[in-house]
Amino acid sequence: MVKRVRKCVVPAAGLGTRFLPATKSVPKELLPIVDTPTLQYIVAEAAHAGIEDVILITARGKTSMVDHFDLSPELEETLLSRGKVAERDALRAISNMARLASIRQHEPLGLGHAVLQAANLVGDEPFAVILGDDVIDAETPAIAQLVECYQRTGMGVVALMEVPVEETPMYGIAAGTMLDDRTMRIERMVEKPQSDPPSNLAVIGRYVLPPRVFDYLREVQPGVGGEIQLTDALALLAEREGLVGYRFEGKRYDAGDRLGYLKANVAFALKRPDLRQGLLEWLREIVAEADAR
Ligand code: G1P
């Protein structure tokens, strides 16, 4: 019997230097896509996949991330007194999405090190990992697709996406044998290969992992950038116990990159009935203006 996936680790301890000065006092995970913080999309995705506990890996100066998922009685009262019941309910729903725990990563020693901070809170059960920089718009939430794959194969799962070969140095890259259209048995994994990538299948920030991965995280030495890399621990997991990659269905935005973040804002705004028409008209205008120049 494969255990149910009830917990999700969300590493959110980064400095967000690519978004300075915005991130001088606001955690990058709270920057909005349209009007909703990226982190809220992530927690909602986990909740939609049946996950009950979200373990947030935080850092100094980022406590407002936890506040975002608490109740806000004063704000709620003000909204109610103005008759804005739906708005009040939407606000309250944020704190009911999942049970949130947070733990600090004291030093920025890498993604693998960040995930390892959650070992005791996760305990002896499979868990999901979602990286906030990867925002995925999909009919079935990407993490739910991976949970389904985990239940089917009984093995740890990483999300995979094809990327142009020149972009492979930016990602963890995996290679192996395809088991069906979307599922690959992983035989090799390399973090940010600077040359000779084993494939053009990039690991995107969604994982479902067995608790044994914590042992491998304790075992690996610092890798790329002198950091403890999750990919290096997953390479050990693949070799010793098996790991699959799943080519998820959905559109992924790199919200950790300025251009990717802007694209995510435009794409999500175009899905909003109240914004779509106005935005489309304006986009057509500025594109025509730019073309005329
Ligand atoms: C991290 C992982 C990398 C993965 C990427 C996905 O890298 O280390 O394996 O491909 O996320 O977004 P980062 O983008 O944090 O440097």
How does this model look, in words?
This protein has 293 residues and is of the alpha/beta class. It has 2 domains: 250 residues, Spore Coat Polysaccharide Biosynthesis Protein SpsA, Chain A (Alpha-Beta Complex); 37 residues, no CATH class. It is 37% helix and 24% strand. The protein has 11 helices and 13 strands. The strands form 3 sheets. Strands 8-11-9-10-12 form a 5-stranded mixed beta barrel. It has a two-stranded antiparallel ribbon with strand order 2-3. Helix 3 runs antiparallel to helix 4 and helix 8 packs across helix 9. The longest helix has 20 residues. The mean pLDDT is 96. The structure holds 1-O-phosphono-alpha-D-glucopyranose (G1P). The site of 1-O-phosphono-alpha-D-glucopyranose has 13 residues, from strand 11 and helix 9.
